[in-house]
Sequence to fold (218 residues):
Amino acid sequence: MSPTAPAISPARSVRANAVAIAAAQMLAKAAGFATLLVLTRALPIEDFGRYTLAIAFVAVLAPLADLGTDMYVTRRVAQDPSGAGGMLGASLALKLVLGALLVGVTGALALALRYPAPTPLLIVLAALTLVSGNFAGSWFATLRAARLMDREAVGTIVSRALHLLATIAAVALGAGVVWVTGAQALAAAVALGAVVLLARRAVAPPVFSGASARWPEL
Fold:
């Protein structure tokens, strides 16, 4: 620390982080509730049922997409900040493989269960939305380890706001359930880009060299 750098007590840092995350979670839940209100009013009953089925279907298989790696990344990076880039790169690379597996499995199961169109497509789009969120989770994990949860809070709020705005925009244009779900998947990808921009100057960039060697650890 430089002689002129202000000292920040750990207790104050913990309080500030806790407040930031709590506020972000409250706003995210409010945005999620608003999204639900928009969809229940805008979509026909059958389409809302298909949308809900797609979300629930993907949620059941969601653990396949990250295997709970974010908590481990946070702990390891907090213990050894010098290895942050390697852990982040390994996590992102693993989630790329697991995400592709999730999309493939959910799509195949939807077809095998003979869901009528457009339900299989909705399930795949919902899986893509989840995968984007999981990638953002790796960046959030490194921010958490660096006690920069204010940036995680901003990223969480931006993600939920984009999700809501994409839903409202699609509904306002008279789009059906497929386009609404597609707009949400696109919003999740844009939100991931925003999270990367928020985090990339605050934490070490991901290092993908030798990432697969860390997968058993993750």
About this structure: The chain has a mean pLDDT of 90.
